[in-house]
Amino acid sequence: MGWNTNLRWRLPVICLLLQVVLVVLFGVFVRYDPDADAHWIEERLSKNMSSDLDNEFYFRYPSFQDVHVMIFVGFGFLMTFLQRYGFSAVGFNFLLAAFGIQWALLMQGWLNSFEGNYVLVGVENLINADFCVGSVCVAFGAVLGKVSPVQLLIMTLFQVTLFAVNEYILLELLEVKDAGGSMTIHTFGAYFGLTVTRILYRPNLYQSKERQSSVYHSDLFAMIGTLFLWMFWPSFNSAVSNHGDAQHRAVINTYCSLAACVLTSVALSSALQKKGKLDMVHIQNATLAGGVAVGTAAEMMLMPYGALIVGFICGIISTLGFVYLTPFLESHLGIQDTCGIHNLHGIPGIIGGIVGAVTAACANTEMYGQKGLAHAFDPESFKASWTASLQGKFQAAGLFVSLAMALVGGFIVGFILKLPFWGQAADENCFEDAVYWEMPKEQNITHHSEDPTLKPSEP
Amino acid sequence: MGWNTNLRWRLPVICLLLQVVLVVLFGVFVRYDPDADAHWIEERLSKNMSSDLDNEFYFRYPSFQDVHVMIFVGFGFLMTFLQRYGFSAVGFNFLLAAFGIQWALLMQGWLNSFEGNYVLVGVENLINADFCVGSVCVAFGAVLGKVSPVQLLIMTLFQVTLFAVNEYILLELLEVKDAGGSMTIHTFGAYFGLTVTRILYRPNLYQSKERQSSVYHSDLFAMIGTLFLWMFWPSFNSAVSNHGDAQHRAVINTYCSLAACVLTSVALSSALQKKGKLDMVHIQNATLAGGVAVGTAAEMMLMPYGALIVGFICGIISTLGFVYLTPFLESHLGIQDTCGIHNLHGIPGIIGGIVGAVTAACANTEMYGQKGLAHAFDPESFKASWTASLQGKFQAAGLFVSLAMALVGGFIVGFILKLPFWGQAADENCFEDAVYWEMPKEQNITHHSEDPTLKPSEP
Amino acid sequence: MGWNTNLRWRLPVICLLLQVVLVVLFGVFVRYDPDADAHWIEERLSKNMSSDLDNEFYFRYPSFQDVHVMIFVGFGFLMTFLQRYGFSAVGFNFLLAAFGIQWALLMQGWLNSFEGNYVLVGVENLINADFCVGSVCVAFGAVLGKVSPVQLLIMTLFQVTLFAVNEYILLELLEVKDAGGSMTIHTFGAYFGLTVTRILYRPNLYQSKERQSSVYHSDLFAMIGTLFLWMFWPSFNSAVSNHGDAQHRAVINTYCSLAACVLTSVALSSALQKKGKLDMVHIQNATLAGGVAVGTAAEMMLMPYGALIVGFICGIISTLGFVYLTPFLESHLGIQDTCGIHNLHGIPGIIGGIVGAVTAACANTEMYGQKGLAHAFDPESFKASWTASLQGKFQAAGLFVSLAMALVGGFIVGFILKLPFWGQAADENCFEDAVYWEMPKEQNITHHSEDPTLKPSEP
């Protein structure tokens, strides 16, 4: 009663409605960036460019594809660890991301690249849209198994909107640097998702407890997600950095931080279990915290050892979070965080914001060179009065704004999602694909070792 | 009787024979493209090039690798959805593609890049060879589970040949634009495969009906294929486009079309099932139709909203096809289309050809600029008389040629494959890996939760 | 007794200790390469560079990411074929590689890019670190299932050190060309690993025989590894080649060799089994031998048909090795080679070294051009006296040095790993994840086809 999960009309109607609106809005607002417009060849000749390669496409496209893999395969498969929720993990992530990137192109375009009544879309917009959806994928991890696809689309609609506003405040108003999104993507996404899952608190969730664990092969599927996230994180943190040294440096720092994070995650995972056995949950998640935590500072002169230290600390804190904090949040604060995003995105995101603020505050001309410093932080509005420590303060302010937006936004959106007509499952049917999917009949997967032509299975 | 699936000599002999012939033909005909030849450095100095980056390699290589992943992991894993046919899906796809790319390098080289008695091979040839094999992978989807690897190699041999001829007619004679291959790859591949499977009609296929469905984890493996196809399709449609804006634009259009397609596929999948549950078959396949259908027009000034509309329509039509058309084709026309390629490649391919023709016919200098228009369509033979509407007519003609080639070619090749000595399986042994593979003994995969050092499994 | 696999303190202590040492050493020694340093913009202006693209980053980064995928997903999943060792295969590979790349950055940096008291790290160093770890992943294949993670970290520590020394001797002292690492990575890694596994010989390994085979889905997971290795091998062999034609040519040669290798592997696999059935072990492994065997010569003017011939031969030899040599090595020489690395990396690596030596010895100005020849082999120390045949001799010498280093190094490291306090498993507990991992409770994965809202699982 009240738990009508029948989506026959709700899901189709909302999907079609959203897509029709998107088509109309794209028709009115979206055009190609000059680098993607057929007039480019004339522009190129007029600017006397030496090579076709000076198209922004060639600076960003390989990174874009890596980010794309992280959003769809990385996040999608990371969440397949639940024994009976693989279809929903990978399928709903696919659905919300496909909707989210379109809506993000519009929202981010209106706020950041609106020129002459049009949003001009190029490869950098595609990356930023993927980034924005990344924060929704983070939040999805907190509510995984407990919400319907209709609720997810509604959540995506609002979260993308709030993300774009928050990003505008940080990047345009506060002139904060956050290329890898420690603040805009991870901190915002995590605390938004945690607030939503708190509002949607299910007191009787223990009824589906037995499905909240993994099975052997579902853990291996999840490792596909983990590894693609881990491997491509250097592309994530460098994708929208300045050309040249900044992209290059962001890759090196992220590579270093992630490597260190693996060792300390493994160390803590083993140390915290009796008999020293490793826990797949930590290997799947905590090893990634180092990528989150250098999101802001990766493009800065953090130095390779600085990146190692960040990864070192985050592997430890993230694993500790899984062992001690997640159970505490659930039992004492009513925060049911399915994937433990607080440990992978929440705390490491805040650490990333702080590391970024400190690294920015320490910037000087000796380290960056005169032109390099101006190039790295290119302050527009407060040019004359710009100092590194001022930048650091604005960075810190950006972190607080992100947290505030996440908490307030999550609170409101949580209550919207609580409305009783979105088709969410009953407590005893959470973490169960069969609620939303036609399930294949389970057959005993016994294979003949003998030649079936000799013993046909049906005589 | 007549169903001798023993491949002991047939498969080795044909593999070795084909490979020996390929070695000889490569020895006689294939050399490096100037950009891949050690003389390049002299050429570069003589042309006074400013940078090593003006090697074609740097324009195409990232896209090539994405296409490569689509052919081998994308198509290979997409077809692992069957419960007992995963080895064959991914293994035979591997085999036919590895053979096909070599044969395609030769066939396409002879027809399109034959210079001074040599086929000069560079990265663009590698991409085109992968494209050509893509059409074989499409056709493989129709006959999946019903043919032997020997038949697949024979089919590849002929289909690659016909593909190259068809491509030559379209691109060289009709001067059609088809960068993403809606016509040459998808329409041709699909109707070729459907014709072949019609000729190979098996009236008693119901005998292996119980193996024609999926199991839980096989559906997750298939999603790996789906997602890599979906994510890298922008690279597919832009891989051989003109440098700069055309590649950039093709990526944006494909990204948009695919995103829209996901939402309408999900909408229809839910609307067409009682209780509104989603069907994995639709999510695995129909979500990709948007990529097929912008194959021709992606590099043109289709506009982002144009791409969204194409994706919108194809998600709907493709899902409808899976629900209504595939069963009809099987029961009334004897077309047993295992993977439903008609819905994913057939109809969307035709739509793509039409969209391309219309978009080309609407091209004008306002939209492209004077130089941009000439650059985009670079008509060589009919330079003076070229008009956009003429281009549109040639595009339409290209679509019909592709269809005709596919039907006639599939008819002939189907009868060749019907010859009784290729080792195909009996009706009751279709969709069964054990016919062609040494199968692992199935053990009960129970894992000890306890420490095995205390309770060793064998005391 | 003596088989205490409890890692509670050993694994955490060694992980944390190694990581702390790495942080300190990075702090003292590692700085950014000029192309990744914020001063780059000043350098660029002073050098009057025309474009941001002349940063080394844009030449190497896409290849780097492909190599990265090969190390972590490729090798990691390739080894998941064992039925109960998937967690360890992918997890320990993750751990050792994350440690190894950091240690390799230092070791290779000290020996090869040490400038003014600092190791200057850029994207090429990241690739080389991945390469170095690749040789450890190869060796891991030999000892898979029989060593503890602590032993693996110790092995990685020593093997990376020896790799860097061997690489220094080959590339700097002998001025050998080995861009794809047939000698430095594959030959060295394989014979090192085989020697280690010989020293660690377990006479009673038959006690865990039943876990040394695969199950249906573990073989599919392994195919993910195989395919990513196969697809990205062209990037592997070209990643550190000279800009332009050399990278381009290395891709073409590797693509050709790998394609040919698939057909001959399939042919032999079928021919050597009664009834002609295919064996997954051969498809997963022997198909890759062609990539190993063109590692040295790929960037040279090997010619496409030359690459086909190499692949042709290696597919045959590698498959023969799996069928005849691996059992012989185990029963007669006590070499228990879990993954058959001798067939995939050992013999093909030696063939690759020989092919490279012959191809180098045949180089001439007609084939390369005057400038091209100097550019391809750029001999520094013995400039005047350089001849192609001399280069060939040095190449051959490099192969012998690699073999000697591997055998001697493996012998010593094997005895170090034999020390009784590293936590290795007893013979009857080999190939068993439960020794080192918290295992998920195995539930019967039956899914309701009915609507669970009607029949809740817990009434």
Automatic annotation (TrEMBL), chains A, B, C:
Keywords: Ammonia transport, Cell membrane, Glycoprotein, Membrane, Transmembrane, Transmembrane helix, Transport. Residues 54-433 form the Ammonium transporter AmtB-like domain. It is found in: Apical cell membrane. SUPFAM superfamilies: Ammonium transporter (SSF111352). One of its GO terms (molecular function) is ankyrin binding. Pfam families: Ammonium_transp. The keyword Glycoprotein applies. It catalyses: NH4(+)(in) = NH4(+)(out); CO2(out) = CO2(in); methylamine(out) = methylamine(in). The keyword Cytoplasm does not apply. The chain crosses the membrane at residues 12-32, 58-78, 85-106, 126-145, 152-171, 183-201, 213-232, 252-272, 305-325, 396-417. It is a multi-pass membrane protein. GO terms for biological process: ammonium homeostasis; intracellular monoatomic ion homeostasis; regulation of pH; transepithelial ammonium transport. Ammonium transporter involved in the maintenance of acid-base homeostasis. Transports ammonium and its related derivative methylammonium across the plasma membrane of epithelial cells likely contributing to renal transepithelial ammonia transport and ammonia metabolism. Postulated to primarily mediate an electroneutral bidirectional transport of NH3 ammonia species according to a mechanism that implies interaction of an NH4(+) ion with acidic residues of the pore entry followed by dissociation of NH4(+) into NH3 and H(+). Homotrimer. PANTHER family: AMMONIUM TRANSPORTER (PTHR11730), AMMONIUM TRANSPORTER RH TYPE C (PTHR11730:SF30). This is Ammonium transporter Rh type C. It comes from Camelus dromedarius (Dromedary).
